Amino acid sequence: MISVVTVTYNSSRTLQDTIFSASNQSCSKFEFIVIDGVSNDGSIEILRDNEKFVSQWISEPDTGMYDAMNKGIHMATGDVVGILNSDDVFYDDQVLSKVAAAFKKNPELDAVIGDIVFVKEDDLNQVVRKYSAKNWKPAKFAWGYMPPHPSFFVRREWFEKLGYYKTDYKIAADYELLIRFLLKGGLRWKYLPLTTTKMRMGGLSTRGIQSLITLNKEIYRACKENDVYTNYAMIYSKYLFKPFEFIFK
Hints:
Blueprint: E1 2-8, H1 12-23, E2 30-36, H2 43-49, E3 56-59, H3 65-75, E4 80-83, E5 88-90, H4 95-105, E6 111-120, E7 123-131, E8 153-155, H5 157-162, H6 173-184, E9 189-200, H7 208-225, H8 232-236
């Protein structure tokens, strides 16, 4: 079974779309867990109105997004865990079925990664950027590249063996965890030619120059903590290629 974890704080504008996206999945065996950080914008009311679609949910204080993710993973009972952000949606209703089929077909796998698309905030069907893991490999961590985190599905046991998201990171705890799992931890993973998620533009790691600086400082730290050689010239060089990821229509 797959456990999908969503963390939310004052996301009432988008939370209903996320819940609908999860509830509409064709997969017969999955659970949907929502961790709310005591929202005051109507999110809790949305959760109460949609309890039939949510396997478990709590609303309590946390120390941030990654602390909330860890809570959700601790609550999970599935063999495989994935993250769906509260302002994102699954690409279509077949995503979890295809992920489950990949693990069933390849029981030796510890994790899978796929592709995502970025869409306009007010139009989930307007794709403006593709983010594919097709040509990604662990050596690219040193250059500031990681596979798209929302497309990462991993066997839950590895959180118990290798640890959870580090809560003293502000933006890049997902980067650090992926290095720890896919490179240092040596997990057996496979790329799936599957678009898993639609992400609205404007996430935490793309909000202005200060966030960009913080992000890259944390990427540097994540590499160092996991014995991956890098430097800031290597990390920032990725921005030379960013424009080619956008789609103009």
